[in-house]
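Re: the pair you flagged

First of the two:
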Amino acid sequence: MSLVCKSQTIVLHLTKYGDSGLIAHVLDNRLGRRGIYLRGIKKSKNSAVIAQFHNLAILEVVTAASTKSKLLYMREYHPLVQLHSIRTDISKSAIALFVSEVIYRTLREESGDEELFEWLKGMISALEALEGNSANFHLKFLVGFCKQMGFLPHDNYSEQTPLFDIISARYVSAGALRDSTYLFTEQDSLLLHRLLNADLDEAMQIPLNARARSGFCDQMLKYLSYWLDTPINIRSLAVLHTIFA
């Protein structure tokens, strides 16, 4: 006996399963983060089938949940949004890989969050539509993702409080007694303030070099790790650093 469910999903990751199957790790708008078994898909001679499950693909799916297994089984699927530039542009593909991994490694398998799901759909569509330089997109994404997760930094930035403190999620004075390992640098603190107050177009125009982007990403992931109380190791970050070097 199985229970059939129609929902929307965002593809995060694919892994092998058996000789011919794949598991699509997805964020489902109704069920949260889940694994869906794609039976026999690797035997298909049409590579376009697997290509439908690229990072951040937004699909409408029909799945079946068996009482004998924790896995969902794919019955039907079709793309809700065509994401041509994310699939073909090397910079956007690298960003998609990073964003997918951040979601995959931070969200647990639990009930769906419709508000978070809709925000992610909006960000994916914005990345697809973005023209020109996209090098700062993942920085803006991390700041927005913290907000959606309930960890929005308090923006009390000023000349008197120029350093962002991870523990209190507030800006503090340079002379405050704080563990320096939990303080953003002045440069990263100012960048966080700018990103908190910029829309996406404005964020893309902030002039940054590869080192500045890399340092800020490291600090934001440390911030997420602290508030989620779990280490976050994003392997695809190295790919982004190489692409935007």
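Second of the two:
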Amino acid sequence: METKKTKFGFTIVELLTVMAIIALLLTILAPALRMVRRIAKDTAQRAQFHSIDVALETYSGETEQYPDSTIRPSVGGDPTTSTAPFTVGAHHLAEALLGRDMLGFDPWTTWDAKADDLSHDIYAAKPPSPKNSNDAEVVKSLDRRKGPYLSPDSVEAYQIAQLYTDTAVGTGDVYPGNLSNTGVINNIYSPAPVLTDSYRVKAVSLPNGRQVKAGSPILYYRANISSRVFENGTTMPSGVTDVCSVAGIYNSFDNEELLALGTVADQSKMHNFNKDEGGALAGRTKFYDMITNPTITTQVRPFNQTSYILMSAGFDGIFGTPDDVYNFKN
């Protein structure tokens, strides 16, 4: 008597059916998973801003003011009349909370990394050996330090030349810092980092050869509390066509040279806050529109008009789009 053989496995029809169901589920779930990932990144960014807020309040408590954000060197708020490379508001934020060398803030700073780099006693310590300084000056600098107000072990801070290619900063518009995009120490410059956000969009190299993911620079603007003027990007001072009034509560120039470098992930892409994006200084108009507080209807006023504004480029890495994250509710 012949024994009936039992068949194991799936038929081709069954396999195709299962694969079709899996593909359908992936199609349905993929947008949801991307949304969850984006929400997690947004939450992490707001948590980072909270930590920076606490650090800035501690800094303010010790120094009786928030860090300066004015672009340096500048004449009347207009870097086009000055000599590059410029230290921008994003640099100032990292310097105040960490120090340029991550060893604390030196109150003798001029906020101008280029000028202090040549000084004998301001941020004298410079790897691999102090430049234009002796050991006594290094000790004096370290003794003056305050902070750091953020932990150097947990903060995400990188040099501009790490975030952008050498060709992008080669024109000298923005102070590059002491590390190249390959992690090599550049002894021409001292360190001057910027804090970066939680949306890690680019691989950068460290001096030890390790590669890590870095986000976009966090922009910092300090309010001019003595001003009652709010520039909206279209009502420029009489006879001036290419600068924002430094009398305004916030000055778009504070980080404008950094915005001109493009996005960190793709430098061919421009930020919507770039002054010439859209023509006729339209980028500045978008900047002022974004920080306008709509609940104040009697006059045009910004959010945080007595303190400061922090900006992250958000998930897409482009400043001036709806996914930007601020330290105010917009």
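Residues 178 and 188 are 7 Å apart (CA to CA).

-B.
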